[in-house]
# Entry
Amino acid sequence: MYSEIVMDHFRNPRNAGRIEDADGIGQVGNPKCGDIMKIYLKIKDDIIEDVKFETFGCGSAIASSSIATEMIKGKSINEAVEISNKAVVEALGGLPPVKIHCSVLAEQAVKSALYDYAQKTNKVIKGLENYKPEDDEIHCQH
# Structure
């Protein structure tokens, strides 16, 4: 049912925790279904130097958070904004259809944290021009 990659990231999540003096923080989720994801970014010279996550949710949500943080760590903010839920699913070796929303959460949490950073620093990040945090409501299927 779950790939070995999903199980590994669930059992041994990478970058779990928080960054107290984060440059950008994004939180997305749907409290009704219980999946809530928070991403913390530490950025220097437009490069994501550190990233941490806190996720309340199922194993797929934790694995999606973990791999998404690995995918953006060390990348520029312009590269990180390009992360897609499809890329998260592919990096995890697939997710069951009922769990795809977890990969969407990861994509939106990254974008939400980048948006927060852009707002705090008055930066324009290509790809976030039309982003609105209130559009991040996830419709869970479990």
In short: The domain at 4-117 is CATH 3.90.1010.10 (Sufe protein. Chain: A). Strands lie at 24-30, 35-44, 47-56. The CA atoms of residues 98 and 141 lie 6 Å apart. The mean pLDDT is 91.
